[in-house]
C-alpha cells in the first residue's frame, strides 16, 4: 500500500485532523498508464480473435438454421441471441482499444470549442488514451507530429528537445511522454478532466480562425503560435507606421540645429529629408506592425512581455525581435549623400509615437534621445550608422532577455478561481517494513475563498434562515473541501495518489487550517509530489464569481508541487533508525492518536507552554526475553549571543530517560514539564542509545520561545 491511512486521527485540541478515507490501492486511475494500455491492447486483440471465431460459428448456424428456425425452440433462440450480443460486445472492444488519434482529436476539439462541460471528462480520457496507445496509421502518425509541434510551444527548451528526440525513436513513447506532461500541468489532479488541456484545444481553434497561414506546416502565422503559448494579450497595438515626411523633416531639422546650427538649416533639412524618403522607398518594407503586450507573467520579470509582428502579405504576420528588427538591413547603411542612416529617424519617430503606451517604449526612447541630442561626442556619418546598428542590436538583446525571463506558457485559468493557500510540512521516517517514508502534513486555508463565494451567494443560500446555528448548519451542508496528493517519479510516471475529504475548517480565532496527514513513500530525490485542495459549493442556485472551464461547483483551488529531497541514510540492515523530531506543545492523554499535541512546524513555542517532542524509533534489538531497552538523552541549551554570559546555568537543561518495549519499533510524544524557558532561541540535542545492540543516534532541533499573547488557540 503506497499511502498509509491513519484511522486513529481524530479531532483534538481545536485542530481538525481526520483520517484519510481512501488509500491509493482503492482509487481508480484517472487515465490509463502505458503498462496498463499495453496489457489491455493485447487482451483486446485476443478478444478480437475469439470474436471472429464465434462469429464464424454463428454464420454457419445462420446458414444451417436459416435465422433460427422453430426447431431451435424458445430456449435455443434465447441462447443464440445472448451469444450474438456477447460476440458483438467482444468485437467492439478492440475498436475502442485501438481508437484512432484523429477521432480523439475531433472529439476533444468539438467539446472544447462548444465548451460542453458534461463531455470534458470523456473527451479528455479519449484523447490521452489515444496518445498513450500510439499511432496505428500513417494519418495518426502525421497528426502526432502536429500535436508534438503545437505542444512543444508550452514546454521548456530541454523538454521540447527530449520530446523531439523521443519522437524519432518511438512515436508511442512520445505520445506517452505527452500524457505525463499534460498530467503535470493539470490544475485539478485526481480528476478525469484536464482543464489546461481543454484550454489548449480552445486556443488552437481560435488561432486557426484568427491567425491562419495556409503556407505554414501547422496552418498558423507567428501570432497564432504566441497565442497558443500565452493566450489573449493584455494589450494589442495595431499600428500602420506610415512614413510621414513632416516627422522626418522635424527630426532632421532638430538634428542640424542641435549639432551644427548656422544659416540655411531649414533648406538643408528639407533636401536631406527628401533624400531619406527616396532611400526608404528604394527598399520597400511592411509598415503594418502588431505589438502584443502581456502584463508580467511572473515576479522574475522586470517588465511586461512584448512581442512584435510585421505584416508580410494577406494578413499574415511574421515575428521580429524588436521594432528596429522590422526595418530592412539596407536602411542601416548610411548612403553617401546622407549624414546618418535612414533607419535612425525611423527608430526615433517610432519609439516617440509609442512612448506613452508602455514603460518599455518610454525607456527605449529616452536612451535613443540621449544618444542623439544629449551626447556631446561628435560623430561622422559612419559613426551615426554604427549607432543605429548598435541600438538595434541592444534592443534585440533586451527583448530576447525579457522573453527568456517569461515562463514557457501561461494559463488564464489561474485567475478565474480564488486561490487557496497551501502549506506542506514533511518529516523523514520509516514504516514497519523499514522502508523510507515522509510523514506529511498537508494544510489548506480556504477561508478567503469561502468568504468571497459566500458574499456572492449569500442571498440564495441564506434566504430561508435567520438563526445563526441554522446558517452554520447550511454552510456545512453545501460547502466541502477536497484534498489530494499525487506522486510521480523522476520520469513523471505516476506512482500513486490519495484523496481526502476532511471537515472544512474555517480558521476564525483558532488560526488552524484544514489538515490531512499521510505517510508518503520516499521514491527518490527529485520525485514530484503534487498537492491540491478544492473548495466546493453544491448549492444548486449559486454561481461562481466568473464563468470558466472548471466545474460550476468549484469555488476555490490551491495547487503545489514539492520535490522530494534527501532522506535519512541507512547503511546496514538491522541498524537503529530514528525519524526527524516533530516539535509542539500542549500534550493531551490519548493513546490512539499518533500526534496528541499541537504541532508547531515553525518551531515557535508560546511562552509558559511545555515543549513536546515526538520521535519514532525502528530496528531496536531485543534481548532473549523479547524486550528492547533503550535510553533517551536530551539537552536544551540557549543559543549563544550578545550578553549570553548573563544567563543562569539553570537554562542549560539536560537529562536521560530509559524505556523498555516488546516491539522493535517505538513512537512517543514526550512533554517536558516545568522547564524555565524564557523568551529567546534554543537548540535541542536529542540522543538515543540502544542498550541491547549498542547503536547510537543523534538529532538536533532549533526553536524559539515567544510571548504567549501572540497565539490564540481555541479548543472545540
State the helical fraction: 25-40%
- Let me know the number of strands: 22
Envelope shape: elongated
Tally of alpha and pi helices: 17
* Oligomer state of the chains in this structure: single chain
Secondary-structure class: alpha+beta
Radius of gyration: 35 Å
Biggest pleated sheet: 5 strands, antiparallel
Show unreliable segments: 1-75, 83-97, 711-716
Q: Strand content of the residues, in percent? A: 15-25%
> Could you report the average pLDDT, rounded to the nearest whole number?
82
End-to-end separation = 34 Å
Characterization of the model:
There is one protein chain. The protein has 716 residues and is α+β, with helices and mostly antiparallel strands. Helix content is 37%, strand content 22%. It is built from 17 helices and 22 strands. Strands 13, 14, 15, 17 and 20 form a five-stranded antiparallel sheet that branches. A hairpin with a 5-residue loop joins strand 21 and strand 22 (696-706). Residues 1-75, 83-97 and 711-716 have low confidence and may be disordered.
Amino acid at each position: 500500500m503506497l499511502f498509509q491511512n491513519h484511522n486513529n486521527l481524530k479531532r483534538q485540541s481545536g485542530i481538525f485532523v481526520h483520517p484519510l478515507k481512501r488509500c491509493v490501492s482503492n482509487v481508480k486511475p484517472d487515465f490509463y498508464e502505458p503498462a496498463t494500455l499495453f496489457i489491455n491492447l493485447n487482451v483486446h486483440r485476443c478478444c478480437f480473435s475469439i470474436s471472429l471465431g464465434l462469429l464464424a460459428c454463428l454464420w454457419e448456424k445462420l446458414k444451417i438454421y436459416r435465422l433460427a428456425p422453430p426447431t431451435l425452440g424458445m430456449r435455443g433462440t434465447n441462447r443464440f441471441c445472448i451469444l450474438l450480443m456477447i460476440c458483438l460486445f467482444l468485437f467492439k472492444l478492440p475498436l475502442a482499444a485501438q481508437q484512432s488519434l484523429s477521432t480523439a482529436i475531433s472529439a476533444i476539439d468539438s467539446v472544447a470549442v462548444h465548451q460542453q462541460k458534461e463531455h470534458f471528462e470523456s473527451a479528455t480520457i479519449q484523447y490521452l488514451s489515444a496518445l498513450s496507445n500510439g499511432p496505428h496509421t500513417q494519418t495518426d502518425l502525421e497528426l502526432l507530429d502536429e500535436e508534438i509541434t503545437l505542444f512543444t510551444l508550452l514546454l521548456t527548451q530541454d523538454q521540447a528537445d527530449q520530446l523531439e528526440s523521443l519522437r524519432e525513436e518511438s512515436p508511442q513513447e512520445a505520445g506517452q511522454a505527452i500524457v505525463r506532461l499534460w498530467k503535470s500541468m493539470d490544475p485539478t489532479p485526481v480528476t478525469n478532466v484536464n482543464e489546461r488541456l481543454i484550454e489548449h484545444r480552445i486556443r488552437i481553434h481560435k488561432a486557426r480562425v484568427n491567425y491562419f497561414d495556409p503556407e505554414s506546416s501547422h496552418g498558423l502565422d507567428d501570432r497564432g503560435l504566441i497565442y497558443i503559448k500565452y493566450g489573449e494579450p493584455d494589450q494589442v497595438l495595431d499600428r500602420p507606421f506610415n512614413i510621414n515626411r513632416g516627422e522626418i523633416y522635424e527630426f532632421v531639422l532638430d538634428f542640424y540645429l542641435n549639432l551644427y546650427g548656422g544659416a540655411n538649416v531649414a533648406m538643408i533639412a528639407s533636401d536631406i529629408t527628401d533624400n531619406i524618403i527616396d532611400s526608404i522607398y528604394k527598399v520597400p518594407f511592411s509598415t503594418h506592425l502588431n505589438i502584443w503586450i502581456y502584463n508580467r507573467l511572473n515576479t522574475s520579470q522586470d517588465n511586461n512581455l512584448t512581442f512584435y509582428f510585421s505584416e508580410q502579405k494577406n494578413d499574415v504576420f511574421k515575428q521580429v525581435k524588436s521594432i528596429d528588427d522590422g526595418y530592412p538591413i539596407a536602411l542601416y547603411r548610411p548612403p553617401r549623400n546622407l549624414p546618418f542612416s535612414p533607419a535612425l529617424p525611423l527608430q526615433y519617430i517610432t519609439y516617440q509615437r509609442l512612448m506613452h503606451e508602455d514603460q518599455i517604449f518610454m525607456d527605449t526612447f529616452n536612451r535613443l534621445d540621449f544618444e542623439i541630442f544629449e551626447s556631446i561626442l561628435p560623430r561622422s556619418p559612419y559613426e551615426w550608422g554604427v549607432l543605429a546598428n548598435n541600438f538595434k542590436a541592444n534592443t534585440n538583446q533586451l527583448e530576447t532577455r525579457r522573453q527568456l525571463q517569461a515562463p514557457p506558457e501561461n494559463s488564464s485559468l489561474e485567475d478565474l478561481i480564488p486561490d487557496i493557500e497551501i502549506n506542506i510540512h514533511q518529516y523523514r521516517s520509516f514504516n514497519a517494513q523499514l522502508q523510507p517514508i515522509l510523514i506529511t502534513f498537508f494544510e489548506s486555508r480556504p477561508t478567503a475563498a469561502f468568504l468571497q463565494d459566500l458574499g456572492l451567494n449569500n442571498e440564495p443560500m441564506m434566504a430561508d434562515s435567520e438563526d445563526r446555528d441554522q446558517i452554520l448548519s447550511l454552510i456545512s451542508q453545501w460547502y466541502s473541501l477536497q484534498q489530494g496528493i499525487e506522486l510521480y517519479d523522476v520520469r513523471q510516471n505516476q506512482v500513486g495518489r490519495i484523496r481526502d475529504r476532511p471537515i472544512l475548517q474555517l480558521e476564525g480565532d483558532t488560526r488552524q487550517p484544514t489538515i490531512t496527514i499521510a505517510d508518503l513513500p520516499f521514491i527518490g530525490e527529485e520525485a514530484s509530489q503534487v498537492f491540491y485542495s478544492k473548495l466546493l459549493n453544491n448549492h444548486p442556485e449559486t454561481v461562481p464569481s466568473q464563468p470558466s472551464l472548471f466545474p460550476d461547483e468549484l469555488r476555490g483551488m490551491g495547487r503545489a508541487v514539492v520535490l522530494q529531497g534527501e532522506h535519512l541514510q541507512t547503511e546496514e540492515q538491522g541498524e537503529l533508525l530514528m525519524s526527524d523530531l516533530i516539535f509542539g506543545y500542549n500534550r493531551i492523554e490519548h493513546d490512539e492518536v499518533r500526534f496528541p499535541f499541537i504541532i508547531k512546524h515553525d518551531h515557535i513555542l508560546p511562552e509558559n507552554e511545555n515543549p513536546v517532542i515526538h520521535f519514532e524509533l525502528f530496528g531496536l534489538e531485543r534481548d532473549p526475553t523479547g524486550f528492547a531497552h533503550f535510553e533517551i538523552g536530551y539537552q536544551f541549551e540557549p543559543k549563544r549571543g550578545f550578553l549570553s554570559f548573563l544567563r543562569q546555568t539553570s537554562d542549560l537543561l539536560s537529562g536521560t530517560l530509559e524505556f523498555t518495549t516488546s516491539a522493535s519499533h517505538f513512537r512517543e510524544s514526550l512533554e517536558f514539564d516545568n522547564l524555565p524557558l524564557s523568551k529567546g532561541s534554543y537548540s535541542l540535542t536529542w540522543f538515543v542509545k540502544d542498550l541491547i545492540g549498542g547503536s547510537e543516534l543523534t538529532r538536533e532541533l532549533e526553536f524559539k520561545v515567544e510571548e504567549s499573547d501572540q497565539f490564540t488557540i481555541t479548543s472545540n
